[in-house]
Amino acid sequence: MTEHLDAIVVGAGHNGLVCAAYLARAGKKTLVLESAPGPGGMAGTRSIRGGYHFPGLVHVAYPFAPGIRRELELDRHGYAPGAPINTTSLAGNGRHLSFGNAGISGQDVPRADADSYPPFRNRYLSFARAMQPLFDSSPPRLKETPFRDKWTLMRLGWNLRVKLGRDSMYELLRVAGINMHDVLSDTFVDDRLKGAIAAEAILGSAMCPRTPGTVLTWLQWLQGALNGPLSIPSSGSMQALASAAEAAGATIRHRAAVRRILVEAGRATGAELASGEKLAADLTVSGVDPRSTFTELVGLPQLDAMFGNRVGQIRGSGVVAKLLLALRDKPAFRGLPEPELGNRLLVAPSLRYVEHAFNASKYGEYPEQPVLDIAIPSLGDTDLAPAGHHVMSVNVAFVPYDLREDSEARKSAFTKRVIALLDEYAPGIESLIVEHQFLSPRDIEADYGAMRGHWHHGELSIHQSFMLRPLYGAAQYDTPIGGLFLCGSGSHPGGGLTGLPGRNAARRILELGKT
Amino acid sequence: MTIAPEHFRQALQRTPFHDRFVALSTTEDWMSWNTYKVARVVDKLSTEYFAVRSGCSVMDLTPMEKYRITGRGACAFLDRLVTRDISKLRPGRVTYVVWCNDDGKVIDDGTLFQFGENDYRLCSQHHQLDWLRISSTGFDVGIEVETADVAALAVQGPTSYSVLDAAGIGDLQNLKPFDVATRQCGRVPVTVSRTGYTGDLGYELWMNRTGALEIWDAIFAVRGRYDVCPMGLSALEMVRIEAGFIMPGFDFNTAGSTIRSGYDRSPYEVGLGWAVNLEKGHFTGRRALLAEHALPAERRLTKIVIDGNKPVNSSLVYDRQNGMKIGEVKAATWSPILKVNIALAELELRGGRLSQGMWARIEYQRELQWHATWARCRTHAKPFYIPDHRSETPPRHY
Fold it and tell me: Rounded to an integer, what is the distance from CA A363 to the centroid of its chain?
């Protein structure tokens, strides 16, 4: 222990970096400790042998919130959202359908859907906008509500009642608790469109289109759409966050895995590294998922029994595997025009297909027909692969964390199955594969330390949202351990590449420091 | 633990001593204690009371909840569970403990026995398995319910040492208060602790239920030489108030049993502040108790002496006659040995202090006619009745 630190941030994931940057800007001497050699956590660049680089687990994202971009001067540090892309729902017969902010395009688009899509999208964007105060701020306390939280509720109320208007507010209240299947079935006729929007809404969660509350999950995802168009995150975006944090005065130590958060007399006093080195700080902020933070880094004996029990009950099992493919040439999808290849490509041809893919995961089985979410980042950034080569990133849903039969043989058979399915849409792709890597939720847990390999550090369901995220007793970023804060996706407003939990946590820390 | 196949036909469970009580009972005055059928009064309340205070009483303790706690993490688990420093307990010793929920409200109290390294027994009034299980996550600990398998008797009163000696449970002269040791009664092993709920000299006997009657019979075999009196729960209620012992769930609501917020109580509020060690490291409720401790207390369960002899059960307490309500009586009895009216009352504090004046409004009946009167109350710091012989080692031999 050499120098005095104001704050230690555990994990250089995007939220950890955002939090560290805000703390450092406020004059806190901040140290970020990261086990990996590079920044970004699950969104950090991931490479496979032969010079192929992937944007980690996150291959499509919306831009960071304008406030964070501005306040941390991210653009000055090299942050730039990727080129805008649309989403394409792939059809087995090669007659695909694409949609985005502009509307629907593609083959055999039903007239009715073409007409109803733009108002539908605008309506849900307006819902997302109305709810923005809730996602943007700390979750309001309902007991002994401080003025700041009353202000959040007032803005929310104003948005719902006045900005949205009575009829839209009623519609939002009607749909917020129901499921995507019903909403989409009421609105559209085209299976490709319904399947793809449903997949977009639930990807990353252990939910199917019929799961109650999935509309809310989608509205959470649409929060990002308020910041700008969908894109493939550029490879430098995590480095930009790290640079912004460092420019603000924070230090980032890579290959420094935290083994333990040190607690004395109910207060966090710093962190102990895997090497045994101990670092003392007034504040410790964990970007690690809440369950791992409390059970592994802090230890349940340091917590009250019922709180510890609730920690054990945080729900969230990863259901998305990742298949990374290094390709010797640009792949071609049957019927897909060249300019659309850079889109987010979804294999979710109908609601029924998505529902069935999910069913298998409920019983601990690999799906026969998985939902695929495909991106080819090397189309926009040729540095990601050797000249002429490409990298393809595939999210494979639904692959359960708890498999009834978990063996290497089953895993490689399933990988073959996914590649064969890809080959049905992109004939010949199998022969282009130079190298591949398949990451099951268990592999994701092992590589990134996220609880049960869950993207969002805990399910984005209504009972784990807002003032219940990640759990009662730690929903305001501070925890029962004095001086210990949470800043990761496990905290409100949750997962996705938003930086909001990190910023909210920093605000809360600085606010508590004031009083 | 074995469960009889037709157990559900029996509304209340029987303890191993049940037949002996049936044989001795003249009142047939039974009640339910923790789902067991036990005597309220066996023969005569006054006889049973005076047996504790001047002879030897025997009470069936089997319905007490008993948990065996073992494993490498047993000490750490218990230290996180209860408010006292358990690392200071030693094998062969017993301690009084209290445990709280996250909000620092009392869940229950009880006695903790340490038999050996990583081998403990926790006895409590109320069922605790769920809370113990919730508290055990993250600890290498085994928790086993022993309630039905371990029979227990409380042998209490000034002659209890002599009675046990005569009954063949000897070599207890060096057993100090809160010591526990294993003895032999004939062929039957029995664990003897110098503990009790009466405030008198006394022992608690713990045995396998199969040998329980041999021990009972050995004790009652000396009835000719000593006054050995089976006792019910009514006499216990009188002596425990005299001894100043509290009963969670009766004198105050336990955490988790209340519907209304603020109706449960912290250790400080029930006079157990002395049993809370905020310095020992983390335990469940510590954070809440730390915060509470920093503020002036709002109420406290207090021992009071009331003028006169009218029964004050359920009376309200006022700061003056026809004044403002400042509390209520939670448990009360006439103390035959002290010849005073005593009670445990929950009293409101102002700025951490008790009101100067204190009057109980007593409503009482005379030949079915209700009357009301005022009686002056005074607080009493120590237990009402503390005889010297309670803690003498070796105890006097009779």
Answer: 25
| No. of helices (H) and no. of strands (E), chain A | 17, 17
Numbered residues of chain A with Cβ closer than 8 Å to any chain B Cβ = 263, 265-266, 295, 299-309, 312, 473, 480
Helices assigned H by DSSP within A381-440: 408-425, 429-432
List CB contacts of A156: < 8 A, sequence separation 6 or more.
Answer: A130, A131, A133, A134
Alpha-carbon gap, residue A231 to A60, rounded angstroms: 6
Please, which residues have CB within 8 angstroms of residue B347's CB and are 6 or more apart in sequence? B299, B300, B301, B302, B304, B317, B326, B327, B354, B355, B358, B379
- Number of A to B CB contacts under 8 A, please give it: 46
Q: What is the pLDDT of residues A122-158, one digit of tens each?
A: 999 999 999 999 888 888 888 788 888 888 889 998 9
CA distances (Å), origin A159, targets A66, A125, A218, A224: 19, 13, 19, 18
Q: Is the ipTM of this complex over 0.85?
A: yes
SS3 for B340-355 is: EEEEEEEEECECCECC
Return d(Cα A244, Cα A250) in angstroms, integer.
Answer: 9
- Dist CA A442 CA A456 (whole Å): 15
Q: Check CB contact of B138 with chain A, cutoff 8 Å.
A: yes
Measure the CA–CA gap between A196 and A210, rounded to whole angstroms.
14
Q: Residue B67 in contact with residue B121, Cβ under 8 Å?
A: yes
- For chain B (398 residues), the mean pLDDT of every run of 10, in chain order, is 74 95 97 96 98 97 98 97 97 98 97 97 96 96 96 98 96 97 96 97 97 97 96 98 96 94 96 96 96 96 97 95 96 97 97 92 96 97 95 95
**Are A219 and A198 in contact, with CB atoms under 8 Å apart?**
no
Is residue A273 classed as helix, strand or coil in its secondary structure?
strand
Structure tokens given for A153: 């509720």
CA distances from A153 to A142, A165, A445, A460, A493 (A): 10, 17, 36, 21, 15
Could you tell me the pTM of the whole model? 0.93
* Cα-based torsion angle of the residue sequence A414, A417, A421, A426 in order, rounded to the nearest 10 degrees: 100
Task: Quote the minimal CA–CA distance from A281 to chain B in Å.
Answer: 20
The residues, ordered by sequence, that sit 6+ positions from B123 with a Cβ below 8 Å of its Cβ are B64, B65, B66, B67, B110, B111, B112, B113
Counted residue by residue, chain B has a size of 398
Best to test chain B binding among A306, A314, A481 (most B CBs inside 10 Å): A306
* Phi (first) and psi of residue A429, to 5 degrees: -65, -30
- Cα B343 to Cα B101, B227, B252: the distances in Å are 27, 29, 14
- Give residue-wise pLDDT tens across range A45-65: 999 999 999 999 999 999 999
Distance CA B130, CA A5 (A): 42
Interatomic CA distance for residues A313 and A297, integer angstroms: 17
Q: What is the pLDDT of residues A160-215, one digit of tens each?
A: 888 998 999 999 999 988 999 999 999 999 999 999 999 999 999 999 999 999 99
Contact list, A295 vs chain B (CB under 8 Å): 138
Choose among A446, A444, A445, A458: nearest CA to A486.
A458
Cα separation, B329 vs B326, whole angstroms: 11
Per DSSP, the three-state class of A234 is: coil
Evaluate whether A170 touches A505 at the Cβ level (below 8 Å). Answer: no
Q: Name the DSSP letter for residue A297.
A: I
